[in-house]
Amino acid sequence: MAVLTAVEVNEQADLSYVRGTYYIALTDSSTAYDSSLDYTTVQADEISSNGGYTRLSFTYSSADLLAYDNGQPVAQKVATFVHDGSSSDIVFNNVILLREVSGTYTVVGFQEVAESVTISNGEFAEININILHGAA
Q1: 96: buried, middle or exposed (CB in 10 Å: 19+, 13-18, 0-12)?
Q2: Among 26, 80, 79, which Cα is nearest to 50's?
Q3: Which of 63, 90, 99, 109 is the one with CA 20 to 30 A from 21?
Q4: Which one is predicted more confidently, 55 or 68?
């Protein structure tokens, strides 16, 4: 089997990540997700706007592609969800990474949290987003 060069993996990462807008969505689902997770399911399971919840967004630039190290790491991003102080809580058990390009959303990845998370009374949750593209 041939091995891709670091330059090729970097080029693939640039084509894959430095386009579109990324969104972090929170869901509260009683069903475990698997690799077939699609955007329709995310929309159905996404939590409501309780506690001021709204999806957070970010983009990557070529500068976010870090030095090759057994895969192409992409700079860490941090999503901070802040409760608005209202009486309704933000409750979630999954964090979903979405990418939107030209109006089309795709699920990039997801992470189930160990137990349901509740954010209330002005509290916040910070979520680190780390991607390693093309790891061997």
Answers
A1: buried
A2: 26
A3: 90
A4: 55
